[in-house]
Write a structure and sequence with these properties.
Helix content: 10-25%
Number of helices: 2
Number of strands: 7
CATH superfamily: Nucleoside Triphosphate Pyrophosphohydrolase
Strand order of the largest sheet: 4-1-6-5
CATH topology: Nucleoside Triphosphate Pyrophosphohydrolase
Radius of gyration: 13 Å
Structural class: alpha+beta
Strand content: 35-45%
Number of domains: 1
């Protein structure tokens, strides 16, 4: 059995993608581990509130896959489209080094492929993002 992590593709009001820099010096989507009794949407809304101090509505499932975080350590990832519901005034929690805002066509090199594919999937289905 693998740990489960729920991640969200969130755009700023200007259409940039919100990413967080982790301790492995990789960019990642906001989100985290699901807790007992939570739905995927509840988990992701809570995680984004904790990590960025932002309120979101969790939308459609984008993708699911098994991600090798480090050699021989896998996590099951589910990514969802998210929509900001309040002002975009993020503050980064202690869980990440910093926030990054990237144009969907200019994502950083140190972004794992699975996250990149989820971002590309939502950008293809939502022109103008």
């Amino acid at each position: 059995m693998y740990p489960v992590s729920i991640k969200g593709v969130l755009h700023t009001p200007d259409g940039e993608v919100v990413l967080l820099l982790n301790e492995r010096e990789e960019w990642e989507l906001p989100g985290g581990r699901i807790e007992a009794g939570e739905s995927s949407a509840e988990c992701l809304a809570r995680e984004i509130r904790e990590e960025l101090n932002l309120e979101v509505v969790v939308g459609a499932l984008l993708d699911t896959y098994l991600f090798e975080v480090i050699p021989s350590r896998h996590v099951f990832i589910a990514t969802y489209n998210c929509t900001l519901t309040g002002p975009f005034t993020p503050s980064v929690s202690h869980e990440h080094k910093r926030i990054g805002l990237f144009a969907p066509d200019a994502l950083p090199a140190n972004l794992p492929d699975g996250y990149r594919q989820s971002i590309q999937r939502i950008c293809k289905t939502s022109p103008g993002k």
